[in-house]
Amino acid sequence: MKKIAAALALIAALLIAAACSSSPASTSSSDDSGSTDTGSEAVVSDSSSEIGTEPITSMFEGRQFHSMTVLDDGRLLVIAGKGIQAQSAGYGSGHLDSAEVYDPITDKWSQTGSMSIVRELPAIVTLDDGRALVTGGATVNRNSTDITEIWDPATGVWTVVTPMNQAREKLQAVVLPDGRVLVIGGTNFEAQRTATAEIYDPATDTWTDVASMSEKRIWHTATALPDGRVLVTGGGNPDGPFLGSAEIFDPASGEWSSAGEMNVSRTQHSATLMADGRVLVVGGRSKRKTSEIYDPLANVWITLADTNAPRAEHVAVALPDGGVLIAGGSGNLDSVEVYDPVNATWAEVGVMDFTRYRFVAATLEDGRVALIGGQGTDKLLAESEVFTPPASGHTTNDLAAAAEAARVEALELVANATPTPVPSPTPEVERSAKTGAGLDIDFPVAEASNADGRTQVPLGQPVKLALAEAVISPDPGTGATATFLEVVEDNRASGGAAVVKVDIRMAFADLGSTDLTLDPNDASLRLKRLGKFWVGVLELEEDADGNPIATVVLFVP
């Protein structure tokens, strides 16, 4: 909350500066402490530090898909993720339950208590009382979890609290002005995307469902706005489709409203609250170099210049001088860029010591940016570094004037445009697939599923699945997971076909559901190619209680 208070103070200063600069009769005023208005002074006055990167102490464990929160005392709490051992021992064994704390003053990491379960991509926030709350994420066998726990910095101990009402991974969490925590979207225990949201109250240790979004979202962003509302943007599978819609949650009413459509649909992008109260959105899958700004006062999107490199799975942090720094990203990027809100331009300002994606970053109290862990070119990284960005020298007046000019232009566009309607939900689409025409494969005898309903087998080995059970081949990290969702129809008794719906997942990509047809006149319809893997339903029968059992196989011809 200290970070939020500082941001609100800077935004207030910008608004005061804008008023002073737009009114010739305005004069500087003093606050209650006797200090004078500093609207004409540079936001960052110390530019003596050398621009560029320098290594800091490495973490105890290499991590990607980890999470981090900035504690009230300026230290960084890093948790969970995928560990180094996963590269040789299989994806499931690489989940981490460990946590460690970085002190930027001493440049030291210290290990702290472990969480109650292993997690990847959990949501973590710092509560008003200084404790840290973590919830959701992927756990054993890539299942999402509802387990929630709180870390106490005084003891280093995690305490399990009331679980969420729904298991979630690839979720987002934001602390609201009253100290409650809003949790948004993600995939549920059945690996299905959700539009639902809920709020945790740490004072009562309770979760309360609130209104759902208009879209089901994963890999989306959630940004707390200065007025207490929350902006959610984009989302979607890494290989599409991507969402272009945005919406805003108002904690006062508990309802969602449209924030219009971004100029570009995005997933695995970033959204950063700037010092002037606007939100900078950058990048996304499909080699997005585009960037744009959302102005909450005008409820409009403004297109900006492209970044110098396409960015996805990168980091983006607000800088003390009003700019935004972005770094790394998929494609083994090591470059660092800074957005200048006064000139509305991007500039490359250096490179990191390592290429990084799936990492975390935070602006430290001294203005440097910590870049921690992630996937490197050939390994998971425990190595971390800090980057000293160039000081722009912009004053609060400069920032306020630039924001006001952009806002006036945006309001003029709104005044002359048709109001943005509430977007209709993106329709569920069946994945592009190739049928098994021409394939003649002799599969082995099907195995029975495991008691826990998730059976890991080599590629090409069929498994008999009950509803909601899954086959994993060859492992969750490098292969795919097929879940038997439902029997859409079964007309075989009258000489027709049966249609079975199966959900497909590849590592962190939810490929969605697809229908496979058991047609006595066309055996090829029971097989489909989705990405590099094929999925097939070889047989549909019933158990002794009349429940459907589908024989499902994942394979590569």
Summed up:
The chain has a domain at 434-555: Sandwich (Tick-borne Encephalitis virus Glycoprotein, domain 1).
Provide the low-confidence segments as ranges.
1-48, 86-93, 429-437
User: What overall form do the CA principal axes indicate?
Assistant: globular
Indicate the CATH topology of one domain.
Answer: Tick-borne Encephalitis virus Glycoprotein, domain 1
**In which range does the helix fraction lie?**
under 10%
What is the CATH class of one domain?
Answer: Mainly Beta
Sheet-strand content, in percent, reads 35-45%
Question: Under the CATH scheme, which architecture of one domain would be assigned?
Answer: Sandwich
Distance between the terminal alpha carbons, to the nearest Å?
Answer: 54 Å
Strand arrangement, major sheet: 31-39-40-41-34-32
Summarize the biggest pleated sheet.
Answer: 6 strands, mixed
Could you tell me the number of beta strands? 41
Q: Provide a count of the helices.
A: 3
Question: What would your notes on this structure say?
Answer:
By secondary structure, the protein is mainly β. The protein has a domain at 434-555: Sandwich (Tick-borne Encephalitis virus Glycoprotein, domain 1), CATH 2.60.98. A six-stranded mixed β-sheet has the order 31-39-40-41-34-32, with no helix packed on it. Strand 3 and strand 4 form a beta hairpin. The radius of gyration is 25 Å and the shape is globular. The termini are far apart. The model is unreliable at 1-48, 86-93 and 429-437 (pLDDT under 50).
